[in-house]
Amino acid sequence: MDKPADSAQPSRPIPADAHDRTDRLLYIGFLVGLGGLSLQLGMLLAAVDAPVYQVTRDGVQAARALFAQREMTAAQWPQHLWYPTRHDAQGLVSSDAESCEPGFTLYTSGHANVALLLDLEGNEVHRWEVPFHAVFGEAKHLNSHVPDACIYIRRAHVFPNGDLLALYETPATTPPGRGLARLDVDGNVLWTFAAATHHDFGIGPDGTIYVLTQSLRTEPHPQMSLLSPPLIEEKISILSPDGEEQKTLSLFDLFGSSPYYRPVVTLRDRAGDVFHSNTVNVIGPGFASHHEGVDAGDLMVCLRNLNLVIVVDPESEEIVWATSGPWHYPHDPDPLENGHILIFDNCATRGTTVGSRVIEFDPTTGGIVREFAGTEDAPLISHIRSCQQLLENGNLLVTESDAGRLLEVTPAGDVVWEYVNPVRGGDEGELTPVVSGGVRYRPEELPFLKSRTARPQVAQASAGE
Fold it and tell me: What is the dihedral of CA 209, 212, 216, 222, to 10 degrees?
């Protein structure tokens, strides 16, 4: 018998796994859509710098900093204190006594909390080796602990009686400063300034000390409100000769109210490091006489990240002069008596050539009147740190920090004295510690050496000895 034409055919049941696949696709589509909305919301919050975004951003930055700090402090050869060995020589390479400035060379090494004094033959005639925690104890002025192996003396100065002014620093924290101390000739602590002192200090004719300090700023600066906190606020702390703080000037305050403030340029803030001040030098009467508004006793400060050299009047608390120049990420602008500036141009941009140079710059003409970029066989290359000193005989003492090298160079560019840090690290001696702040002292500037009877010795040749 035939079936009725309108009778329904039985339907085929849908497999259970088809329902599951459909549900999964819908769920995945929901997650993708939710993710897209979240991404757009996050971009909107970031664009308006909303508080929710600030908390997330700050947390990520803090986590990155903590991981980097832990990695560096756990390393046997901490990064930024040790670099690949560039020169096979260890210790004195060459010395032309007749062409050299007489005296002794002070330098600090990244392998220890140490400052060493050498004669022109490369012999060590004195050393100050005092670990940071032996000076500052628990260092309660700091919010993080760093082992002494990750701390070094960034800048040092020897007084005629053999006292040493030592600035301790570490590459493991932000801010990097640890503190400033005056040690006697035997390394005993005379006084300390417990603050985040960093990079450099200058000493006035009356013994006043001007030292760079930093702090973390978590609130926007009123005159630079476009900068998003947290920020590294740069300061100059002014100390009496016995280490008592007289006052502290905020470079943010001074710069923000000066005619040299350019908001768009200053926004190049690399994780809050807006200025990266790295030098403070006391200006003498010669340089001041060549530049209107500048007086002897004013302070020359280098703002590395802005490629700017400024002059601060510590009495009126204002920036009275500034210049840029043909340099990139420079260090150590020295105000010369002829009105020029001697400066270490770390990342000299010369086409495809990678290297560094020391230049003498005339701010009135914008011209370079002297330049030394190393030799063909050994060009200067130090992307951070480094400095130079104009000696009385017209030579330059050049510190090539990354290479652990000190050079004395004539005005004609001839190397008449060369010394390479003899300390080596790494499994096969493939690492050399940085050298910071080489300074030449004439014999009459260090009369304490006459009373020291210890025999000169060659500076140590390997870490840990």
Answer: 90
Give the chain's end-to-end CA distance (angstroms, integer). Answer: 110
Element (H, E) at 441: strand 435-441
The sign of the dihedral angle between the CA atoms of 52, 53, 55, 60 is positive
- Cβ 155 vs Cβ 140: under 8 Å: no
Identify residue 317 by its one-letter amino acid code.
E
Cα–Cα distance, 79 to 418 (Å, whole number): 25
202 has which bridge partners? 210
**Which conformational region is residue 283 in: left (phi greater than 0), alpha (psi within -120 to 50 degrees), or beta?**
beta
Q: What is the predicted pLDDT for the residue at 56?
A: 56
Per-residue tokens: 299 = 């302070």
User: Whole-angstrom Cα distance, residue 263 to residue 174?
Assistant: 24
CB-based burial of residue 185 (10 Å sphere; 0-12 exposed, 13-18 middle, 19+ buried)? middle
Residue ranges in the chain modelled with pLDDT below 50: 1-5, 7-8, 53, 454-456, 458, 464-465
What is d(CA 392, CA 390) in angstroms, rounded to the nearest whole number?
7
Report the 10 Å Cβ neighbour count for 237: 21
Which residues have CB under 8 Å from 370's CB, separation 6+?
359, 360, 411
State how far the Cα of 404 lies from the Cα of 420, in Å rounded to an integer. 6
Structure-token pair, residue 426 = 């790494």
Longest dimension (CA), the chain: 133
- Prior bond of 171 cis (ω within 30°): no
* Coil, strand or helix at 79: strand
Q: Please state, in angstroms and rounded to a whole number, the distance separating the CA atoms of residues 84 and 426.
A: 9
